[in-house]
Design a protein that fits this description.
Layout lengths: L12 H14 L6 H14 L4 E4 L2 H11 L7 E4 L5 H9 L3 E4 L11 H5 L6 E7 L9 H11 L2 E5 L7 E2 L2 E2 L6 E5 L12 E5 L2 H10 L37 H11 L2 H19 L5 E3 L6 E2 L5 E5 L6 H10 L25 H9 E4 L7 H17 L2
Parallel strand pairs: 2-3, 2-4, 4-5, 5-8
Antiparallel strand pairs: 1-9, 6-7, 6-11, 8-9, 10-12, 12-13
Helix pairs in contact: 1-8, 2-8, 3-4, 9-12
Bound molecules: pyridoxal-5'-phosphate.
């Protein structure tokens, strides 16, 4: 079998070069027409309003935490089973992390894990749709947040175009963050988006992404500077330099037309894997809500038989040219988070038994069958 990578960069090369040519000739390479156009198109595609394009998902998360009121003395109850980027903004904003444990069959927190950790200084809960699969309790957790006046931040870096109850995933949080980084479903090279449930947060986010300036007032209808921005910025309103620029937006616009085909490519391969793994006695895909349409950035499985761990299986699959892997190291293992150590048995178990298979448009249907059969063969040889 030829080597099947876990991730692959999608680019529409000719369109990208054409778009970049136009941007470079325009002499206007920072935030302008291309960013405005991509924002409009993504609003339609994702089915959400109040979208602010930024230079990364990490930036979008930072703004979401800041808008939730995170500062010294306050905390976020967050998942450790994610990319470091989900949680570094919390300590960069001088907030405290309260790790909540995860369910060992999904790698994501359940409502009870969260309820145990929330205290009077909690301003936000952060969840991640691991591999593009929404957390089983997402709706319950959003209701819990509303009831307790805590913000829900949903790091949907893996979950672009995922749905729940046929609705966009961004319907189920105060803040939803997407990543358009190189190896995500839809790439701008680097980039991200923040979707705000409330209009007032949206207005603030637009300012925070550019030092705190109200750039709308200083732009013409095409998004170009009309005049020099002169307004004052108070300490409370001080923001960041997090905006998306026309170069990365031009790359995104070139890939935009392919979004549906890309997502369909991921879902079609997942459907084939489901046939093999859904009712298997030895392993199963991570739990997903019944009414969800995950975007399957990768396809994550857990081993059911607790005599086995996934490490050896990954090594064997790699030998067969199938680039399986664990994707992220649990965050609590990084020493930058050592102040927040706590017992997390569900996390330890999930990380022991989980592994992800490549799942995307670059895999042919017959290769997906071959991958699934190889996984089952390797496992059965170990029993
Ligand atoms: C779960 C998760 N959150 C956030 C990020 C950060 O995204 P970005 O590189 O766009 O900042 C990543 C990147 O891989 C991720 O996997």
């Amino acid at each position: 079998m030829k080597k099947i990578p876990l991730f692959k960069v999608f680019t529409n090369k000719n369109k990208t070069l054409k778009n970049l040519d136009k941007v470079l000739d325009s002499g206007f390479i920072n935030e302008g027409e291309e960013v405005r156009l991509l924002t409009q198109k993504l609003e339609k595609k994702i089915g959400s309003k109040n979208i602010v394009l930024m230079n990364s998902c990490t930036s979008a998360l930072t703004v979401a935490y800041k808008l939730s009121g995170l500062c010294e003395g306050k905390n976020v109850v967050t998942t450790p089973m994610t990319c470091i980027a989900t949680n570094t903004p919390i300590i960069n904003l001088n907030g405290k992390i309260k790790w909540c444990d995860v369910d060992s069959y999904s790698g994501m927190p359940r409502l009870k894990n969260i309820e145990e950790k929330v205290d009077k200084n909690t301003v936000a809960i952060c969840l991640v749709s691991w591999a593009g699969v929404p957390p089983v309790d997402l709706k319950k957790i959003f209701n819990f947040c509303k009831k307790n006046k805590i913000k829900l931040i949903h790091d949907s870096a893996h979950a672009f175009m995922a749905k729940l109850d046929k609705k966009p995933i961004s319907n189920f949080a105060d803040f939803t963050c997407f990543s358009f980084q190189a190896i995500k479903h839809f790439t701008c090279g680097d980039g991200g988006a923040l979707i705000c449930k409330s209009l007032s947060s949206f207005q603030k986010a637009k300012k925070l992404k550019w030092f705190g300036y109200d750039r709308e007032k200083a732009k013409d209808s095409k998004g170009h500077w009309k005049n020099q921005q002169e307004a004052d910025i108070s300490y409370e309103d001080l923001g960041y330099k997090f905006n998306m620029n026309n170069i990365t937006a031009a790359i995104g616009l070139a890939n935009y037309e392919s979004i549906d085909a890309i997502i369909e490519g991921h879902r079609n391969i997942a459907k084939i894997y489901d046939e093999y793994f859904f009712n298997n006695a030895l392993l199963c895909p991570i739990s997903r809500p019944k009414s969800s349409e995950p975007s399957f950035w990768v396809y994550t499985l857990v081993l059911k038989d607790n005599r086995f761990c996934s490490e050896k299986l990954i090594t064997d699959l790699n030998k067969e040219n199938i680039q399986a892997g664990k994707v992220h190291i649990p965050c609590d293992e990084y020493s930058c988070f050592s102040n927040f150590k706590t017992s997390l048995p569900g996390l330890r178990e999930f990380n022991r038994i989980q592994f992800s298979l490549p799942c995307g448009w670059w895999i042919k249907k017959n290769e997906a069958h071959e991958i699934a059969q190889k996984v089952l063969k390797i496992i059965s040889q170990k029993i």
